[in-house]
Design goal:
single chain, 238 residues, alpha/beta, Rossmann fold, Arc Repressor Mutant, subunit A, five-stranded parallel sheet, four-stranded antiparallel sheet, 8 helices, 12 strands
């Protein structure tokens, strides 16, 4: 593999990249090289550690070696795709170029790169996947395993489709756009109904209940929509 020093980046990136690679020297080399582009890079040397890292902190890109110990790369993809459908995944593999590439794509990878590879090509593919993710950010909202495709009027939780009315969708959209921030009933009324809040009306509370019943109906899943008593509501995954 040819590794070259990266040129000074014009716009430093704050992207969080997880490199899941069991070859420690290669993983360290990838980390140093990507850091030259001002990416924040974290390492995992087995599949279980990688999956835990993805579940405990947000990442913008996963570089995934298929031959990981403890949890194979394909199995890892099967675990993360239901809850992280929009995470870009670039697979690095030294396996058979045809069968394994097809398998990786079928399991949810966005791109594949065969070892040995040149670092300029890897860097270009990383940039392309991050550009695609940034382009989708305005269209797709995500809080934990809850995703909303604003363009196609679709909402899913853990990969399961949730049917919402137009007004329920608008309420949830406002909550997701203000994720982890407490919003008052007056704020919801003004932004969703474009009307002044009337304290004698329970309209907001009724629609909050409709939305909560649909997105938090699975008792096994963490509750996302919470009531801040005396203040309003917050949608959060922690």
């Amino acid at each position: 593999m040819q590794v070259q020093e990266a040129p000074e980046a014009v716009h430093p990136s704050t992207a969080q990249i997880l490199v899941a690679e069991d070859d420690v020297p290669l993983a360290n080399l990838l980390k140093r090289s990507l850091q030259n582009y001002h990416y924040n890079v974290h390492l995992a040397h087995d599949g279980e550690t990688a999956l835990q890292a993805l579940r405990t902190r947000p990442h913008d890109l996963l570089l995934l070696d298929l031959g990981l110990p403890l949890l194979d790369g394909l199995v890892l993809l099967d675990h993360l795709r239901p809850t992280m459908p929009n995470l870009p995944v670039l697979v690095l593999t030294g396996r058979s170029p045809l069968e394994q590439r097809v398998a990786a794509l079928d399991h949810g990878a966005d791109d594949c790169l065969l070892k040995p590879f040149s670092f300029p090509e890897l860097a270009a593919r990383v940039r392309a996947l991050l550009r695609r993710k940034n382009h989708d950010n305005g269209r797709v909202l995500r809080v934990g395993d809850l995703t909303m495709d604003r363009e196609h009027f679709q909402v899913e939780r853990a990969g399961t489709r949730i049917e919402l009315t137009e007004k329920e969708f608008a309420v949830l959209e406002y909550l997701m756009m203000n994720a982890r921030r407490t919003v008052t009933r007056a704020m919801i009324m003004e932004n969703v109904w474009k009307s002044t809040y009337d304290a004698s009306s329970n309209l907001v509370d009724v629609y909050i209940k409709y939305v909560r019943d649909k997105i938090d109906r699975d008792v096994l899943s963490p509750k996302l929509l919470r009531t801040m008593r005396g203040v309003g509501y917050v949608l959060a995954d922690n």
